[in-house]
UniProtKB/TrEMBL annotation:
Its EC number is 2.7.11.22. The lineage of its organism: Eukaryota, Fungi, Dikarya, Ascomycota, Pezizomycotina. This is cyclin-dependent kinase. It catalyses: L-threonyl-[protein] + ATP = O-phospho-L-threonyl-[protein] + ADP + H(+); L-seryl-[protein] + ATP = O-phospho-L-seryl-[protein] + ADP + H(+). InterPro entries: CDK (IPR050108), CDK11/PITSLRE_STKc (IPR045267), Kinase-like_dom_sf (IPR011009), Prot_kinase_dom (IPR000719), Ser/Thr_kinase_AS (IPR008271). Residues 46-102, 424-459 are annotated as: Disordered.
Length: 488
């Protein structure tokens, strides 16, 4: 009985629980409703997985086809763009009232690199050592940077009080900062940074930190017992010409070249400084003021009131500096504009329509009374006689630089290629240049007799000036006996 009971129980157990083969298949006769539902659920899940897999594959195929289509379209666009003419640039020139656009074919626009913005450092980072000098557009002092110990020149911009209240920093200061930041040349003084005073609300607390050089050329010439050697003169002129050529190549006019604005260190390096009157120009030149260049170095076209000028005014100043280096004295120390013009005509001759075409059309030349070409003593330029120790090539260079006609003056690049610098004696190497005791580190430089650069104001008219008698008495001047060659 007990055995039968166990057998009945086993049979009932098998009927209520499905039986599977070892390979996972269900034995058909063991299915129940619950087993059928489970099987249907599993089948449904399997079909759902297949459907999702198929959809994923379809999406991947669509993505691949879309990428291939985009690549083909891109390649097609590139091929078509190669065949098309380049797109025109958008016109930025403002249109005139009549709907047209101004004639800009010959206009050259200047491009400037724009750096980042950052607050200026304080002038308290420098210890002032001593004052050096006062110029037309600022005060200069010698200082030492506290952190590095470097000796520098601190230039404080000179401001007109009324103007500063009205417009802030003057144009001269802004131009000087902009030009010095843009310039990078061994013969141009380097601007290290611009610093401000503690009271930043006061516009006058602006300082230019410049590299320090021990001398200015004017002081050296005044203190020298003997003039520079010919080789040293050439070295100075080459460095001056190189710096001026760099400025002119970058569309910059200095407009105040003179010996007191040329700095010299104890390594024989000359650098152009004081850019208070410098400015950018273009082609064609913009409207420029005539109140430029210190009187003793001012070109005749400026004295006669020209309204347009360019690089030749700087080259006239270079010629005056050349002569001053030779003699250690200013070439044309006129007391006023008329006196300076008189000295120019006595040295360079009277201008004529042949030597200076169109000079009579200058504003201040209309009413001038000039001696005739045949007047006694009017022998033309006497530059060669004024500088007898200068070679023929040197005299030709100086005569060209001091040409009354601006178009006849050589450019700075032409000057550097002149025969004068190729003749013996050759220019002395900078390392062999003589040194001079520095006064900038000991005391304030004494004031030079050179007049200051012109300030702002109304341009003075010369009026009716009579130059007809400037050569009177020249034919009675004493002359050396000289000599003559005679064929025997």
């Amino acid at each position: 009985m007990l055995q039968c009971s166990r057998d009945n129980h086993s049979i009932n157990h098998y009927r209520t629980h499905p039986i599977f083969h070892t390979n996972g298949e269900q034995i058909p006769w063991a299915n129940t409703e619950e087993d059928a539902a489970l099987e249907a659920k599993l089948k449904k899940e399997k079909e759902e997985k297949k459907r999702l897999k198929a959809e994923k594959a379809a999406r991947a195929e669509q993505e691949r086809q879309r990428a291939a289509a985009e690549q083909a379209q891109k390649q097609q666009d590139e091929e078509s763009s190669d065949r098309r003419p380049p797109a025109k640039r958008r016109k930025l020139t403002p249109e005139r009232e009549d709907g047209g656009i101004g004639d800009t074919e010959d206009v050259k626009l200047l491009r400037f690199e724009i750096g980042g913005w950052a607050p200026s450092r304080s002038v308290e980072n420098y210890d002032k050592l001593n004052d050096i000098e006062e110029g037309s557009y600022g005060w200069v002092a010698r200082a030492r940077e506290i952190k590095t110990g470097d000796v520098v020149a601190l230039k404080r911009l000179k401001l007109d009080k009324d103007e500063s209240m009205r417009t802030g920093l003057p144009e001269t200061g802004l131009r000087e900062i902009q030009i010095l930041k843009d310039c990078s040349h061994k013969n141009i003084v380097k601007l290290r940074e611009v610093v401000v005073g503690e009271d930043t609300l006061r516009i006058e607390n602006i300082f230019l930190v410049l590299e320090f050089l021990e001398h200015d050329l004017k002081s050296i010439l005044e203190d020298m017992p003997e003039p520079f050697l010919a080789s040293e003169v050439k070295t100075l002129l080459l460095q001056l010409g190189s710096g001026v050529a760099y400025l002119h190549d970058h569309w910059i006019l200095h407009r105040d070249l003179k010996t007191s604005n040329l700095l010299l260190n104890n390594r024989g390096q000359l650098k152009i400084a004081d850019f208070g009157m410098a400015r950018y120009v273009g082609d064609p030149a913009p409207k420029l003021t005539q109140l430029v260049v210190t009187l003793w170095y001012r070109a005749p076209e400026l004295l006669l009131g020209t309204k347009t000028y360019g690089a030749p005014i700087d080259m006239w100043s270079v010629g005056c500096i050349f002569a001053e280096i030779l003699t250690r004295k200013a070439l044309l120390p006129g007391k006023n504009e008329v006196d300076t013009l008189t000295m120019i005509f006595e040295l360079c001759g009277i201008p004529t329509e042949e030597s200076w075409p169109g000079f009579r059309r200058l504003p201040n030349a209309h009413s001038l009374r000039l001696p005739s070409k045949n007047a006694p003593g009017a022998t033309g330029a006497v530059i060669r006689a004024r500088f007898p120790l200068l070679t023929a090539a040197g005299s030709a260079l100086l005569t060209g630089l001091l040409s009354l006609n601006p178009d006849a003056r050589p450019t700075a690049k032409e000057m550097l290629q002149h025969e004068y610098f190729r003749q013996d004696p050759k220019p002395k190497h900078e390392a062999m240049f003589p040194t001079f005791p520095s006064k900038a580190g000991q005391e304030r430089r004494r004031r030079h007799d050179t007049p200051n650069a012109p300030g702002r104001g109304q341009v003075a008219s010369l009026g009716a000036v009579d130059f007809s008698g400037i050569f009177a008495g020249r034919d009675k001047e004493e002359r050396g006996g000289g000599f003559a060659l005679r064929m025997v």
